[in-house]
Amino acid sequence: MNRPFCELHLHIEGTLEPATIFQLARQQRLTLPYADEDDLARRYRFTDLQSFLDLYYDNMRVLRSEDDFFALAWAYFLRAGIAGIAHVELFVDPQAHSVRGVAETTVLRGLRRAMDRAREELAISSSIIACVLRDQPVDSAHAMLEAVLSADVAVTGLGLDSAEAGHPPSRFAAVFADARAAGLHVVAHAGEEGPADYVWEALDVLGAERIDHGIHALDDSALVQRLVADRIPLTVCPLSNVRLRVVEDVAELPIRRMLDDGLCVTINSDDPAYFGGYLDDNLRSIQDAFGLTDGDLDKLCENSIAASFLPDSEKARLR
Ligand code: ES4
Ligand code: ZN
Predict the structure, then answer these.
(1) Are 7 and 81 spatial neighbours (Cβ–Cβ below 8 Å)?
(2) Which residues make up the binding site for substrate (predicted)?
(3) In this predicted complex, what is the ipTM?
(4) Annotated binding site: which residue ranges?
(5) Model pTM?
(6) Confidence at residue 1, expressed as pLDDT on a 0 to 100 scale
């Protein structure tokens, strides 16, 4: 990838590779419910979003100390360097750790150390977007936001993730209003497994500045017009959509239509350890399927820069 891509939809816990899970378990003398790495890797076959989330949350048991979060993020940055990524806005799920007794500050400090090192040694810039687990109570989301805002590590934004069906964005209107009042950027997963209506809610109720996935937005032409008019980017994750059975094959994704309709579509890796590839692999997967030209790749790279929350001076440096 000889273009300065920005990765805008990357769950840092979704970069936890089987080898790292076993390494961290050995260090902590934890016994895992899997015989070995291959046994674990064989379970990376999913029927839908929930079947993935069950394993994703379960594997987090190996993430306990600040050093564990450093190790997780540093391994990701080394791989991101190979992919040629210039900037990452990484998602983290603080509630998935606080529920196990791991404080928000422990998580954020470990990530921050890896981010500082990535900037110095790999020239990769990054920021953190803390995500609300939409299948958990609203009170828990409020508590997470408060803890994150009072931590000594800054975050750039608030996101919304986890099981989408039956969990509309509007439940979290007050939490996202607080986040905006505190100066955070706002993004939300919507239209991954859920309907176009959830994308409307993410925009109109939460004030989302980007939509994560948004595949089902294309079912609603008025919504597409709105996304184009307001220049709301979509962070599409091709290999994720295949592995979670949103589509059978990447060729079914409406990426060509998104480009032709003037949507600000970006390509991202979501949970690369679970879905079979990092950002470079995701780009390769659609390059053949859609016959992407150099011009298309330039456009996807430019979209990723434009859609980032970098200050204009940093965007200009990447262009
Ligand atoms: C996620 Cl693919 C996806 N969708 C929703 N929530 C998530 N958390 C981690 N990966
Ligand atoms: Zn995601």
Answers:
(1) no
(2) 271
(3) 0.98
(4) 9, 11, 189, 270-271
(5) 0.97
(6) 74
